[in-house]
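Notes from hallway chat w/ T.B., transcribed later so I don't forget. T.B. wanted the structure written out for a chain they're using in a teaching module, and asked if we could keep both sequence and structure tokens in one place. Agreed to drop them here.
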Amino acid sequence: MRDLAVIFSALADPTRLDMLALLLRNSELCVCDFVESLGITQSKASRHLRYLWNARLLEDRRDGLWVYYRISRSLDPARGKIVKALARVFDERDLTELEGKLAAWMNRKGPGTACAVPPTKKAAAARLRAKTPKPRTAAEARR
């Protein structure tokens, strides 16, 4: 029974249900896809996805800096029935707005494109130096 409580606890949040709805209609999504389509922070998206992962409803795949999630391919019978029931419920719901937000993000992101790479400290410092005017020497100032 404790196992069922963990599953239903994971499903008792609107954000996590939105995430599952998106994953049931898309084979795999990156954390940034949830951030952009749900309008939440990266830390919040990661926390909610980890909750679903800990309930053994999702599996993840790492690709460099990015983490991709999908519905687990090795669901036990109870989880499989619950996910199938959710899929039927989501099929009866109007998810146009949610799917539209994801589609708009995917169009901005572009096909086969990874999410924006966070700048390194070195790259950020170089950009700052390029924007900052160089100090003039005393000889240059006299001209």
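Follow-up for T.B.: Strands lie at 29-30, 58-63, 66-71. Might be a good example for the class.
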